[in-house]
């Protein structure tokens, strides 16, 4: 592909989330978040995402009493809290233009409902953003990435409670005011649709606390509150930081019909709509009719305040960001078909695609298809804020890490990304690879599921030196950024 380059000013970089990378879970006045109470299950098959995400009130109570951090990997993360200067310097060495990170809500408001913010927490992110600025890196900040303070779960039933919107508004106003001169790009809720797949980490919901209630209704009620909160966050951000850009964030699970049988095609259309309904709501500022039909047919009643519809309509997002890791097949009947795991979904295996060790099917063309679908649907700029390969890496005797498989994954995806921009006319603001530095996996909570260009010496129990080592892909990505893709 000689002389093909990405558009001028394309924002190349990497992404992390506080709950998976920071550690320092009880330092600097930080409160406890839902993720700090999420235990790993190393004995459970890695493809059994349901088991990995199951949590009860009793589990949380046990977690709160436990000081055995080796069981709760998100408590140690990759120790970014102590290594951020070194990490950002390494991002700069790769040439990052942008670094996507999240602010841990519980570092700013330890219990979520506190009146005053925690100054030490605010100062930490001041330091992080200053460090980014020193290296010419633009921060892209997720306001909420699986980090609700646990107090909101235990005393308010998480996002099911309307009151949480007010607490979130307060948090957003605080961070936008504090970082008004440091952060221009924002995302409201990471993968807002993941409320359906892991309601605990996304919405602070625990099923056993809603006895006698329709669980799906609980989830959608919490989701409604996040939609209103997201619109209010967009409003607040635009008011406090003129010129700022606020995006929604969707898990782009791309489904193909397993066969051309109309029943299978219909099923894939239904599955895609079941996903698009979230970004449709955030981009168009209203619930799509097909989601309202689903509510009606399932007897789901969402409690709304009279002003909610107007709020959602008045403050839609400026751009659409998404994660893309894989595609899956879907069919009217799965009988006799091979299934595989994916990004918190189980789907039919596509015989034409290879899979990662975690069963996620690798499909670079699916990225192009996803970009075209999203851009045609929304006509808003896209931002790919997560993509990458979770793999086991080995440190060689000479200390090097040869992750050619990761380079191959990125190489293929970057080519199709460029095809979407160049041939399909898709507007794409930038690309941040997921877990640019190794971090704790969201679904399985393993450290050994590594995504980074930078290796972190730490095992699934948190043992290790936390030394950073650039992998082979580090040097490769540097060349991609340096040449703005021409190197590919
Ligand atoms: C996305 C999440 O769904 O997938 C991240 O936003 C997560 O938080 C990423 O880490 C990869 O998933 P996993 O389970 O491999 O960490």
TrEMBL record:
Q: Where are the transmembrane segments?
A: none
| The keyword Flavoprotein is annotated on this UniProt entry | no
**Record InterPro entries:** GH, GH_1_N_CS, Glyco_hydro_1, Glyco_hydro_1_AS
GO BP terms, alphabetized: carbohydrate catabolic process
What GO CC annotations are associated with the protein? cytosol
Checking Gene3D superfamilies in the record gives:
Glycosidases
Q: Return the PROSITE patterns for the record.
A: GLYCOSYL_HYDROL_F1_1, GLYCOSYL_HYDROL_F1_2
Q: Which UniProt keywords apply?
A: Glycosidase, Hydrolase
- Annotated GO MF terms: beta-glucosidase activity
The positions flagged as active site in the entry are 386
Assigned protein family: Belongs to the glycosyl hydrolase 1 family.
Query: What protein is this chain from?
Result: 6-phospho-beta-glucosidase
What species is this protein from? Youngiibacter fragilis 232.1
